[in-house]
Amino acid sequence: MSLAASDQVAGAPRPRFDHDAIVIGAGMSGLYQLIRLRELGLGAVVFEAGTGVGGTWYWNRYPGARFDSESYSYGYSFDPELLQEWSWSEHFAPQPETLRYLNRVADKYDLRRDIRFRSRVAAAQYDEVARGWTVTLEDGSHHACRFLITAIGVLSAPTWPRIEGIGSFRGQSWHTARWPREPVDFAGKRVAVIGTGATGVQTIQEVAKTAGHLTVFQRTPNWCAPLHNRPITEEEQRRIKASYPEIFRRCQETFSCFLHTPDPRGTFEVTPEEREAFWERLYASPGFGIWVGNFRDMLTDRAANREISEFIARKIRQRVKDPAVAEKLIPKCHGFGTKRVPLETNYYEVYNQPNVLLVDCRETPIERITPTGIRTSEAEHEFDIIIYATGFDALTGAFDRIDIRGRDGLALKEKWAGGARTLAGMLVDGFPNMFMLLGPHTALGNIPRSIEYNVDWVTALLRHMREHHLTFAEARPEAVAAWMAHVMACAEGLLTFEVDSWMTGVNRNVEGKQTRTIARYAGSAPAYRAWCDAVAAEGYRALTLA
Ligand code: N01
Fold first, then answer.
1. Which residues contact 66 (CB under 8 A, 6 or more apart)?
2. Residue 312 CB contacts under 8 Å (≥ 6 apart), including other chains
3. Which of 105, 290, 430, 432 could disulfide-link 474, Cβ–Cβ 3.0 to 4.6 Å?
4. If pLDDT is split at 50, 70 and 90, which confidence band does 418 have?
5. Residue with the nearest Cα to atom 31 of ligand 1?
6. Residue ranges per structural domain of the chain
7. Is a pLDDT exceeding 70 seen at residue 185?
8. What's the chain's Rg over C-alpha atoms?
9. What percent of the chain clears pLDDT 90, i.e. is strictly above it?
10. How many other CB atoms sit within 10 Å of the CB of residue 150?
């Protein structure tokens, strides 16, 4: 029996909901939430803007897109059968494989029958009388539900650069997060890539393989480290499948749910020789070890951060032949790891190729996009293709793009104007019966691990509400204040928060996002879960339930 049909406020007219729950987004969180809602016996629909499932892995089909957390730590952990059925081909799987995986999940659980594709949500309005939400799609249709669950991702609102003339280019151009389905042939073409974040790095190293000529427009260099990807052998496959319980146990224990976790030693507690040997080992190892498995003080102690930055700078100088180009590629304004470290495969060597040019936008800024290419303060560059790897309006951007209104018609965008305030990234006071999966201030890291935790927490709350005949859940303002104090405390002393990046809520291409905020939860995933578990264990006293 559905919750909406069974639980009615005493004396009030029976609310007429189209669905118990509406989920926005059919990415990794939306798919898993749908599975759990069905298990609860709730009638749910998922509205998805795309034509298929996959979210991030549906939209980001740019050349070179792949995991940079180990494939076997990334998949869903909740279905042991699926874990045995699915074989990842590489230690860091490419995007088409991940998209196939998510389609396989959708097939296995017959999820598509409850997903409406090509359905972009334009607005959602809380209805105080009905204690539910009315969701409006871009086609103007309205859909009423008791519970609204946002599964709209952290990095799903792409941003184009604010450059004059962007619409005038006569060649082909795409944002990496809106890449076409048809393969793009770069052979013999003059290609530009704007942006050198994790996406730009993956794109550049792939496009450089075949482009006639590639020009990279770099505004801020990033500290990149080798991915060391390779195929998974049959023997490794057997070992991986036999050790899934240990793999996921390890992910639960580590700081950010990766297989790597900080080394308990401080940078200067070891001899210079030991330090160098440790870093050499990390640099030669696959994955994020060098970022999240480094000395524990790397992101809190300036001198420690300087040491590791110098180590990586030496690597860049060794790998890039032209010293002037190498210097341009070495960040000078932020230390190693204070931004998300892009993992690369021969990225630096790309700049040794005769068909690749690095343009430093700090020295020679882009002035405008022209019908034939890009004009900088120094030169006119002609292109056949321009690729915008210019990132996302992260964390809150996808929320801002929906007109979400809570009690008294208050717009979420307005409520968050000075920075998002949440309860554990999942609830907002003033927005009853709305639950966010991966909302601002959830513990991020190895994302699927955060997703599974958030979905299970929301599902447990819904179960609790059903068992107690409750139809209303709202975060208490004092609980939000307590949570935000915890978020602020976790951020204190972290070098990460002294740097502009999507993790500090800065995007110079978005109005009103020029100043740093504590946009991201910087505590550990175990601390995050302990906090949320305590809320549940205390009977959800942090929430008003009715
Ligand atoms: O975006 P970004 P991203 N002129 O914001 C530049 C995840 N991810 O898509 O730094 C010139 O990091 C901008 O320059 P600046 C991962 O979490 C995961 O690359 O603002 N340049 C920057 O270089 C990652 O952190 C995977 O000076 C302009 C770039 O565009 C997150 O997604 C793979 C400009 C944007 O970099 C976002 O990464 C890829 C302008 N006007 C990404 N405007 C996995 O492996 C912007 N830029 C799972």
1. 90, 92, 93, 94, 95, 202, 229
2. 223, 225, 283, 336
3. 432
4. confident
5. 198
6. 3-51+117-157+394-471
7. yes
8. 24
9. 96
10. 26
Homologous superfamily assigned to 3-51+117-157+394-471: FAD/NAD(P)-binding domain (3.50.50.60)
pLDDT at residue 519 in the model: 84
- Tell me: pLDDT of 381 over 90: yes
Q: Pseudo-torsion of CA 493, 499, 502, 507, nearest 10°? A: 140
Nearest to 21 by CA among 9, 38, 7: 38
From 137, 173, 175, 174, select the one nearest 159 (Cα to Cα): 175
Spatial distance between the Cα atoms of 528 and 450, rounded to a whole number of angstroms: 10
Whole-angstrom Cα distance, residue 117 to residue 103? 14
Task: Report the separation in Å between the CA atom of 452 and the middle of ligand 1, taken as the mean of its atom positions.
Answer: 26
Q: Which atom of ligand 1 is nearest to the CA of 509?
A: 43
Q: From the CA of 288, how far away is ligand 1's center (Å)?
A: 18
Q: Which two tokens stand for residue 111?
A: 């999820």
CB of 199 closer than 6 angstroms to any ligand 1 atom = yes
Summarize the confidence of residues 527-533 as an average pLDDT: 98
User: How confident is the model at residue 1, as a pLDDT?
Assistant: 37
Closest Cα to atom 12, ligand 1: which residue? 197
Q: Whose CA is nearest to atom 11 of ligand 1?
A: 219
Evaluated on CA atoms 232, 235, 238, 241, the torsion sign reads negative
What does the DSSP 8-state code read for residue 411? B
SS3 80: helix
Distance (Å, whole) CA 425 – CA 450: 11
Which amino acid residue places its CA nearest to atom 15 of ligand 1?
220
Q: Can you tell me the distance from the alpha carbon of 120 to that of 49, in angstroms, rounded to the nearest whole number?
A: 4
Identify the bridge partners of residue 125 per DSSP, sorted by sequence position. 134, 405
264 Cβ neighbours under 8 A, 6+ residues apart: 296
Classify 165 in phi/psi space as left (phi over 0), alpha (psi -120 to 50) or beta: left
pLDDT-derived band of residue 15, with 50, 70 and 90 as boundaries? low
Choosing from 60, 199, 499 the residue with most ligand 1 atoms within 8 A of its CB, the one to mutate for a pocket test is 199
User: What band does 16 get if pLDDT is binned at 50, 70 and 90?
Assistant: confident
pTM higher than the cut 0.85: yes
